Automatic annotation (TrEMBL):
Name listed for the protein in its UniProt record: Pyridoxal 5'-phosphate synthase subunit PdxT
Recorded name of the encoding gene: pdxT
E.C. number(s) listed in UniProt: 4.3.3.6, 3.5.1.2
Keyword Secreted appears in the UniProt entry: no
GO terms, biological process: L-glutamine catabolic process; pyridoxal phosphate biosynthetic process; pyridoxine metabolic process
Presence of the UniProt keyword Transferase in the record: yes
Originating species: Zymobacter palmae
Residues where L-glutamine binds: G51, E52, S53, R108, I136, R137
Length: 192
């Protein structure tokens, strides 16, 4: 286990980084917004937040961040949420660049107009009963590959998955008051 508080980078090009930072700080972690390659130095973990994955990709290109982030997500414990999960996926529909750090197939904005946003309660493999999940223009995980553990589902669809030190969910665990996904992520870092 770590003796000092872990330092977690939160990609802050676009989208929902502040609420992640608050959740992490409440759990005793130190946080750093990641906007350029040097911000990745010395991190113990990384969060890729929700937002618009296409906009993030454009901004990454501009900052020369795509390749440094691709390397970082191979070597660091990483939590992707919503758009962040799209960035981690091996296969994205419609096709767009990604870090291919997790063998999953995702379809962007797959829940259709009526279900564009939804708040659901569902069982997960985490301790402590059902988890409130906030979905906003969420991607759907259509397939999981070898070695991927499904920790929660929405109906039949995986919504929280893990492979090794990479964790990804299609909902927004930073919205709302239940810190269990962040706590689980930080626990993975302790074991890393
Ligand atoms: N809340 C979100 O992160 C939505 C993801 C967004 N629809 C995308 O395709 O990137």
């Amino acid at each position: 286990m770590m003796t000092t508080a872990p330092l977690i980078g939160v990609l802050a090009l676009q989208g929902a980084s502040d609420a992640h930072c608050r959740m992490l700080e409440q759990r005793g972690a130190r946080v750093r917004n990641v906007r350029r390659p040097a911000d990745l130095d010395g991190l113990d973990g990384l969060i890729l937040p929700g937002g618009e994955s296409t906009a993030m990709l454009r901004l990454m290109d501009r900052e020369g961040l795509f390749e440094p982030l691709r390397r970082a997500v191979q070597s660091l414990p990483c939590l992707g949420t919503c758009a962040g999960t799209i960035l981690l996926a091996e296969t994205v529909e419609p096709v767009q660049p990604s870090f291919a750090a997790l063998p999953i197939t995702v379809t962007r904005n797959a829940y259709g107009r009526q279900n564009d946003s939804a708040i659901l309660n569902a069982q997960t493999a985490l301790d402590g009963g059902p988890l409130e999940m906030v979905f906003i223009r969420a991607p759907r995980i259509d397939a999981v590959g070898e070695g991927v553990t499904v920790l929660a589902r929405r109906g039949d669809d995986p919504v929280l998955v893990q492979k090794g030190h990479t964790l990804a969910c299609t909902f927004h665990p930073e919205l709302g008051s239940d810190p269990r996904v962040h706590a689980y992520f930080l626990a993975q870092i302790g074991h890393h």
